[in-house]
UniProtKB/TrEMBL annotation:
Source organism superkingdom: Bacteria
Domain named Carboxymuconolactone decarboxylase-like: residues: 40-120
GO MF, any single term: peroxiredoxin activity
UniProt name for this protein: Carboxymuconolactone decarboxylase family protein
Organism of provenance: Leptobacterium flavescens
Length: 196
């Protein structure tokens, strides 16, 4: 059972209008946003930050951003965000082979060296204590420019917030996210955990 009950999508009309963004991303408004709207300034600020972080300004694709989010969420253990990130990666065109093998991104041939550098950055930046070092930096700079690195860290940081929010709240995971979590992550032990 969640720590705080989500409110109706109609509770705050400004949040509802902004949250239409998630219908494209996930196919539904997340329960996390419905909980945040208990303080509408938080829900609105969060949605606007999410939109800014997920905008494509360079070569970091929408699918890669969602895979970066998955690696970050996997590192922190948030099952809610793992399911959301893999669902969004699927909806934003990640290759089937990548979705099926996200757990093996370090060695699987479906991932390029540039993608591996981005996903290694996500893993290192999501660890406590932080593991970003010269090796991570050197690999990033082989493939990405500084603006693209900022985009990646924006995703990692956004999901740091979401991982803390949803794991602490025990946010109930939605059916669409459950479906994607079971399809792509279940073979490696993904389950809803406390997010029921």
């Amino acid at each position: 059972m969640p720590l705080v009950t989500p409110l109706s999508p109609d509770h705050d009309l400004e949040t509802k209008e902004l949250a239409e963004f998630f219908n494209e991303t996930l196919g539904f408004c997340p329960n996390s946003v419905l909980t945040m709207q208990r303080r509408p300034a938080i829900s609105k600020a969060f949605i606007n930050l999410n939109k800014a972080v997920m905008a494509n300004e360079g070569r970091v694709t929408s699918a890669l951003k969602r895979m970066i989010a998955w690696v970050s969420s996997n590192a922190t253990g948030c099952r809610y965000c793992q399911a959301h990130a893999i669902r969004a990666a699927e909806r934003y065109g990640a290759e089937q082979e990548q979705l099926d093998n996200i757990w093996e991104y370090k060695t699987h041939p479906a991932f390029s060296d540039a993608e591996r550098a981005a996903l290694d950055f996500s893993l290192a930046a999501s660890m406590v204590p932080n593991q970003v070092d010269e090796t991570i930096k050197e690999e990033l700079y082989k493939h990405w420019n500084e603006g693209e690195i900022v985009e990646m860290l924006g995703v990692i940081s956004l999901f740091g917030y979401l991982n803390r929010w949803n794991d602490s709240m025990g946010t109930t995971v939605e059916e669409g996210a459950i479906e994607s979590g079971e399809k792509y992550l279940g073979k490696h032990g993904w389950e809803r955990g406390k997010h029921v």
